[in-house]
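Contributing new records

If you add data, match the layout below exactly. Sequence lines come first and carry their own label; structure lines follow with theirs. Keep one chain per record. Anything else will be rejected by the validation script.
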Amino acid sequence: MNYLKLDLPLLVLGVGFLLISRLFSPGFKFQAYCQMVSTFWAHQPFVISFSLNRIAPFFAASQQGKAVIPEMRKWIPAFTYIIISSAILSFYWDIPSGTKLFYGQLRILVQMAVFIALGLSALALAKAFLENRGVLFFQNALTATVLLHGLASLYEFMAIKRGWPVIGISRPDLSPLGVAAFSMGSTEVLRPGGLAGEPKTVAVLYGIFVLPAIFAPPPKSRSKLVRALRWMAILLSGLGFLMAFSTSAFIGGVVVVGVLAIRFWKAGMGQWAKGFAVAMFAVAAWGALAPNLSETVPLIEILKGRTIDRLSGGKGLSDPPVQASIEVMRENPRIFLFGTGLGGSSFEIMKHLGPYSYAYAPNIGMVFMLVEVGLLGTLLLLLPWSLMSLLPMPPVTHPAHQKCRYLYGLSVSALILDLAGSGIAMGYPLAIASMAAYAHFSGLANRDLRAGVAHGIKGQPSNIVKQ
């Protein structure tokens, strides 16, 4: 099988794009570009494994806007605790002999740098959402990102069928390229991963885009072209979400739909009709792309096999690093409460699975968070988000309503899908930043309402209208 080796070209193109954007783009655009680039998996080993999803947060952190968003201060205790506790816990790591330097003795420095960059990127993105046109431009950038991944997923599907060069999964281990698939009877079911590397990762991206677009749509663009591209992206993301056949994304998606449906239950049946139409398109398009498979194995059987059968058969957590992480927390209460520290879970997993030249990591976000920062760190991270999510939504007649609604849906989708699966590189910063921005706009809107400000746009204070 021939592969399209895109790692180095994408890495060079992505870094070059971020460098130019950093110099010439306004802050809110640059932050959207960083989020966009972070979804592409382009890996190249030098001293350590470099990839776009690791580099993008450092670019995002380097550009801090002038806006002030006090809601982000709620996460200071969590970030402070995780940094201090990780530094202390790293002294207790049992690093196997022969482990590469930056995956062993210096791993804590790498993990600290990445964590700090992610924290600062969350702050920068939250500030960008406060900028004029910040939310709308982010949605447009996310639309473009989904279109690129969606077209790549379609190409990968057709390449297998027609013998074209395939976009493979690049890995920094002994099997550098591969195509994701699973067996269903005597048939191999392809799981295209777009340009994100893994199907479960691109499924999270599709979910983060399509679920808010259906249940919490952003403000409408005046451009017919933008609206048409957005609908194309919605349909492609619905199809891509299905074709990825990610159990964790399916489960996370159901939870997201439940949360958004409860929060926005007064919105009427329009959102359900839109969701049903997207789902039917995905099923029909998948059936057209895989006619032989759909004739021999019904789609409902494949979905049942990837969800209900896996869970009822005890295979829902079959990934060995996930099982090992759960076993580690069960055996060691200290790790369950305080974690291993950032990056330390790999060494605990190695005790169960054996030494490895790279680094193990569980591919379920909630398990990964618990084993790395412990129950205490997890609660400190999730508590501010949970409290902000309970803040009242501005009424439909308020000009900030649609923006708040989209930010809320974006945050819920990003957090739940990242916790359910392996997620995207900057998924947690996106969840935190969008919820902080939601809380900020919600606070301003409700303060205006308490002050008796009229609901008409012209009567609103400039800090609501402009933002």
